[in-house]
Amino acid sequence: MSYLRPRFLLLCLLGGLVAAAAPAHAVSRAIVMEWEKIKGRAGYELELVRLTKAGREAPQLFTSEEANWKQELAVGNYEIRLRTIDDRGVPGDWGAASPYIVKLPAPKLLSPSAGSEIKPVPRARLHPVAIEWEAVPETKAYLVEILNASDKVVDRKRIEGLSYSRELPVGKSYRARVAALGEEDSVGEASLHAFSVMSSIQKTRLATVKLNRGRVSYESHTGRWAISSPPNR
User: Are residues 97 and 113 part of one domain?
Assistant: First the structure.
């Protein structure tokens, strides 16, 4: 008898953090997995293998009567494979193993707030911008990136704290991106806030002096006089 191998259609993370049972896996996340339902099958068996620096942990087996599975998994790398079970309880062949990563959640960005417009001091060309965020459990370092309006990374730093400050040119738009770093500096999910540093140079009106010949204008922002020729008569 031939058995159909179920195909994963959706693999996604849900919700926040929970405490894991094993001390070594102090942070876990609630997840749900869904796959294509196979007609004529009574259930499914899922094999989960955690991958660590020490190697592959012992496989864990789970069964489900529906074409989905919910579980709390510790943050880390995994391999998952699936097979069907018929109405006699006989399992089919295993499908191909699929890699899966449970990432650390994104930290909550505190500042700059999304869409904020930062006003620099008058005539400043650079202005300090402080990026601050809330801690993610079991995280000692974070990846902080500042992107310009073209989504080019203009600054990238590994920070072992909850804030980072950088002077940025005024009159430009930016985005701040912060992600928690896990084992071997694996990058977790990121938070992203757009903000802008407003220009510090105010527009000035020209003072105009009428002369018998031509016109003289004083440019107050440059401190120079501009002379224009009179119109031909």
Answer: no
**Residue 2 located in a structural domain:** no
Q: Read off the amino acid at residue 108.
A: K
Q: What's the Cα-to-Cα distance from 5 to each of 36, 50, 84, rounded to whole Å?
A: 10, 22, 7
Residues counted in the chain: 233
Residue pair 178/105 in contact by the 8 Å Cβ criterion:
no
Question: Rounded to an integer, what distance in angstroms lies between the CA atom of residue 113 and that of residue 191?
Answer: 11
Number of structural domains the chain divides into: 3
pTM of this prediction?
0.69
* pLDDT tens track for 32-88: 999 999 888 899 999 999 998 899 999 999 999 999 999 999 999 999 999 999 999
Distance CA 189, CA 173 (A): 23
φ, ψ at 142 (rounded to 5°): -135, 150
Domain range for residue 81? 8-102
